[in-house]
């Protein structure tokens, strides 16, 4: 007892054993392994003894393959792809326009050194070198906010991935459930009180063994004084031969009696009242099996050998109190929760039903060879599934990979070594509270509190962070286009440099420095997964950029032709206009609706006002440029604000054109729940075998296969 299995092995002839596979499946309850079955490296033998033949060692074992899967799991974040796309777009555009300026300047005979100096400065200003910094700072500030919600970010880009998660594969034990075996309402015989049934089962248990089932039974005793008043004179622990525990007890009144607990079929066989109670016991077993409960039979005897079957105790891991509501909230946010568990199908289906996830639970072994590519049929089955049962590490990896290939951004929760490959493979791996070091190392986010609600809170916060990044991306592209097109057209058409190289550098420093404060902006998250829509981002920013170019040329025309300013003063005028109008653009891009629909954060407002006050003073008093004066500076501010109001209306129109509201897609009908039919068939299979030989998992799988075949035959059209 307590031996660690050193390699994958096939069991030979002998009695069944109890195996703890929590290192592989994450499930705390031991499973029964029989002759011909397999045990895996890293498992622990809890009870029993049997010979076995080794068939896999080292990296060829289930445990070894887990380590290999971690090494194979590599994903490129959507954040990196988005930054690269934006950067490539602006760099190619900047290089093309600068090359055009250079060719025209040389053709017209302009000074080569002056032209090269200007082109170099324009190229540096146009390339979004500050974009990765601003976006990283935004995510870093967001990571601090997530830490306050007890979610520690280990990889910054995971924040953006979490905002886009539309499928969350959640571990059952400890995340959706309490990871605490609990007693349900006992089934009692002949009017015996439930409290007595629980008490007698507790007397046939021993806390010192630290057995999960024994601790649950003892914990179910409501009045501890009754348990303490009885003295256990002799205790017989569980063994593979008798398949039960027994105790000789002396009550408070001095009378001696005997108690036993074990598999209901075993306890029923030894009871003298079996003939009278068998029908009702069989019905209760069927009911408990259909709901995925583990059953314990309880018997009592006042004389040695005169056992009376007194009742049954259902054992289950109850759902967390907040899980069902949290799952409903996740659905409203566009996140589909899929339960992933190493438990048997009946338990998984009942838990899923209680949580409102659905009852289409897929047996992971039915997914086929996980080393092969995902077939369309398997991909569709995984897509439609509400959850997966009897899952091993390679199944989790396979499920995540299939969902990613179907276009989903997948989140995965886990806590054990067995979860590490899937955590690393997922777009956003989440190590839950109490996770092993291996799981934390593979995950992108580590939770400090248990339950699903903290994950949903983290998703909400990550979507706010994404909104800030998206706002900055549109702003940065729009401003780069505004400066590039205005400068290029002014040079090509009017043979005039509207701003100097020094002015370009000052605009870049003031604007990019202040825009870091967008990390603290007020935003509202959307009730749908976020993703980089580059077509929309480039379309909106291009519209705003083009309108900005038109506004700049109109002011240039007014300054030179209407107000008859000299060229140096016009340059100062255009410098202030580009600086002020540029920063006002951030107030347009930060909201999808009118700019006043969401109040900006004080930090952002003060940063913008502060930097533009500096830019205005530089222009008014002529630092590195011709002085403009307060009158013309006031005109520029009024002009920029007026065009900002116009741009806001244009932005709303652009969103309606490029991103119209889509009609909701009708939901498909949920698959029928055949749990009761499968439970009935599973018990029929049990009846055909020798009583006492319990193989609940195998019976359930066989019953489910036969039920599905019968349904398929009924639905098959006649020839």
Most strands sheet = 8 strands, mixed
Low-confidence stretches: 664-671, 690-694
Distance between the termini: 58 Å
Going by helix content, strand content and strand pairing, the class is: alpha/beta
Task: Kindly estimate the percentage of residues that lie in beta strands according to DSSP.
Answer: 5-15%
What best-fitting shape do the alpha-carbon axes yield?
elongated
- Cα radius of gyration in angstroms: 35 Å
Overall mean pLDDT stands at 83
Strand order of the largest sheet: 7-21-20-19-8-16-18-17
Please tally the β strands and state the result.
21
Proportion in helices: 40-55%
Number of helices: 26
Describe this structure in words.
- The protein is α/β, with parallel strands linked by helices and 719 residues long.
- The protein is built from 26 helices and 21 strands.
- The strands form 4 sheets. An 8-stranded mixed β-sheet has the order 7-21-20-19-8-16-18-17, with helices on both faces. Strands 9, 10, 11, 12, 13, 14 and 15 form a 7-stranded antiparallel β-sheet that branches. The protein has a 3-stranded antiparallel β-sheet with strand order 4-1-6, with no helix packed on it.
- A hairpin with a 5-residue loop joins strand 12 and strand 13 (256-262).
- Helix 20 (501-515) packs antiparallel against helix 23 and helix 21 (534-562) packs antiparallel against helix 24 (630-658).
């Amino acid at each position: 007892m307590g031996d660690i299995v050193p390699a994958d092995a096939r069991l030979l002839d002998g009695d069944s054993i109890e195996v703890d596979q929590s290192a592989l499946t994450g499930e705390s309850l031991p499973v029964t392994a029989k002759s011909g079955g397999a045990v895996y490296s890293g498992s622990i033998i809890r009870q029993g003894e049997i010979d076995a033949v080794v068939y896999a060692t080292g990296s060829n074992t289930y445990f070894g393959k887990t380590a290999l899967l971690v090494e194979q799991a590599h994903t490129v974040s959507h954040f990196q792809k988005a930054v690269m796309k934006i950067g490539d777009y602006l760099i190619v555009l900047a290089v093309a326009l600068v090359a055009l300026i250079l060719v025209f300047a040389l053709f017209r005979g302009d000074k080569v050194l002056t032209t090269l100096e200007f082109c170099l400065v324009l190229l540096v200003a146009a390339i979004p070198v500050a974009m990765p910094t601003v976006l990283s700072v935004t995510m870093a500030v967001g990571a601090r906010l997530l830490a306050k919600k007890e979610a520690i970010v280990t990889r910054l880009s995971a924040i953006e991935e979490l905002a886009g998660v539309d499928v969350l594969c959640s571990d059952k034990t400890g995340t959706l459930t309490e990871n605490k075996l609990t007693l349900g309402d006992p089934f009692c015989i002949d009017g015996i009180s439930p409290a007595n049934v629980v008490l007698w089962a507790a007397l046939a248990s021993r806390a010192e063994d630290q057995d999960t089932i024994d601790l649950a039974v003892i914990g179910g005793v409501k009045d501890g004084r009754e348990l303490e008043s009885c003295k256990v004179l002799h205790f017989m622990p569980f063994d593979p031969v008798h398949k039960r525990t027994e105790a000789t007890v002396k009550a408070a009144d001095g009378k001696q009696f005997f108690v036993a607990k074990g598999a209901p079929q075993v306890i029923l066989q030894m009871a003298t009242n079996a003939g009278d109670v068998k029908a009702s016991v069989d019905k209760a077993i069927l009911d408990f099996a259909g709901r995925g409960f583990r059953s314990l039979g309880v018997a009592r005897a006042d004389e040695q050998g005169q056992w009376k079957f007194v009742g049954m105790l259902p054992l289950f891991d109850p759902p967390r109190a907040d899980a069902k509501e949290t799952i409903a909230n996740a659905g409203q946010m566009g996140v589909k929760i899929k339960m992933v568990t190493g438990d048997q199908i009946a338990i998984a289906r009942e838990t899923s039903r209680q949580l409102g996830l659905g009852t289409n639970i897929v047996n992971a072994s039915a997914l086929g060879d996980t080393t092969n590519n995902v077939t369309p049929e398997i991909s569709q089955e995984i897509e439609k599934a509400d959850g997966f049962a009897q899952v091993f590490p390679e199944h989790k990896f396979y499920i995540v990979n299939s969902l990613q290939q179907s276009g989903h951004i997948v989140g995965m929760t886990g806590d054990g070594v067995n979860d590490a490959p899937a955590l690393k493979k997922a777009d956003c791996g989440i190590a839950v509270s109490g996770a092993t070091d291996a799981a934390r190392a593979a995950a992108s986010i580590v939770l400090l509190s248990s339950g699903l609600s903290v994950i949903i809170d983290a998703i909400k916060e990550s979507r706010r962070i994404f909104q800030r990044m998206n706002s900055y991306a549109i702003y940065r592209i729009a401003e780069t286009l505004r400066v590039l097109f205005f400068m290029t057209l002014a040079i090509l058409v009017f043979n005039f440099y509207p701003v100097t190289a020094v002015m370009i550098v000052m605009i870049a420093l003031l604007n990019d420095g202040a825009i870091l404060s967008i990390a603290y902006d007020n935003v509202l998250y959307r009730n749908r997964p976020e993703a980089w829509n580059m077509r929309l981002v480039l379309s909106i920013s291009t519209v705003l950029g083009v309108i900005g170019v038109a506004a700049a040329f109109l002011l240039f025309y007014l300054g030179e032709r209407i107000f008859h300013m000299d060229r140096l003063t016009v340059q100062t005028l255009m410098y202030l206009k580009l600086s002020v109008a540029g920063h006002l653009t951030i107030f347009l891009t930060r909201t999808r609706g009118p700019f006043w629909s969401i109040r900006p954060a004080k930090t952002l407002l003060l940063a913008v006002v502060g930097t533009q006050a500096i830019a205005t003073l530089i222009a008014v008093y002529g630092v590195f440029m011709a002085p403009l004066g307060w009158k013309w500076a006031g005109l520029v501010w009024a002009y920029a604000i007026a065009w900002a109001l116009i741009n806001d209306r244009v932005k709303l129109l652009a969103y309606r054109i490029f991103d119209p509201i889509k009609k909701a897609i009708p939901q498909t009908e949920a698959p029928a729940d055949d749990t009761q039919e499968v439970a009935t068939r599973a018990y029929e299979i049990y009846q055909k075998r020798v009583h006492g030989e319990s193989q609940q998992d195998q019976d359930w799988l066989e019953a489910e296969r036969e039920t599905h075949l019968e349904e398929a035959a009924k639905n098959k059209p006649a020839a």
